[in-house]
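Hello,

Our lab assistant flagged a job as stuck in the queue for most of the afternoon. It eventually completed. Since we weren't sure the result was trustworthy after the delay, we are filing this so someone can double-check. Below is the sequence as submitted and the structure that was eventually returned. Let us know if re-running is recommended.
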Amino acid sequence: MHLLRKCPCPVWIMKPPEKSKYSSILAAVDFDPVTPAAADQVLNREILELASSLALTDSASLHIVHAWEAFAESTMLSRGDISLESIFAYPGRQQSLHQKRLDQLGEQMRDWIGTDAYGRLSPRFHLSKGPAKTMIAIVEEGLRADLVVMGTIARTGISGLIIGNTAESILDQLTCSVLAIKLPGFSTPVKLAM
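-- returned structure --
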């Protein structure tokens, strides 16, 4: 678990029954397929390296999930000046963009963890249409994952300072333990009173 020591600000949320060994790990990644942000790339790498390390240590299956939505899909449906062909083709084009970026992330993961480790893991990729706060829990339940590794970057409100707003909303829906990772360099302004 050498990667856990280098992991920036990990937050473990253990749910009973606490396990000493995991059998199915779900790594949740996020990205914009058109204009990828450097911060997303860094955080996704941390998530994938840590989840891979834990999966290899425990001989667990590794699943990578990315939830996506077709931006403004409902708005397009309500407008009368857009052809039906364009409206119906739009989600498919968006799905293709997300799938292409998820495939690229898989190739990068192979480079990051090494071909041998990648081959031993044989990670399975899941592209789920819908909001992350809903889809991650659905995939977790369907796979019976016992650990979700996810990133968190939100910094608004008290919960955002500690874990992140999207992560916070996902936590209540998950039935398994969670390892949430903040971006490198994050330091919480929350101070312990002595």
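-- support follow-up --
The delay was a queue issue, not a problem with the job. The result is valid. The longest helix spans residues 84-113. The chain is about 50% helix and 15% strand.
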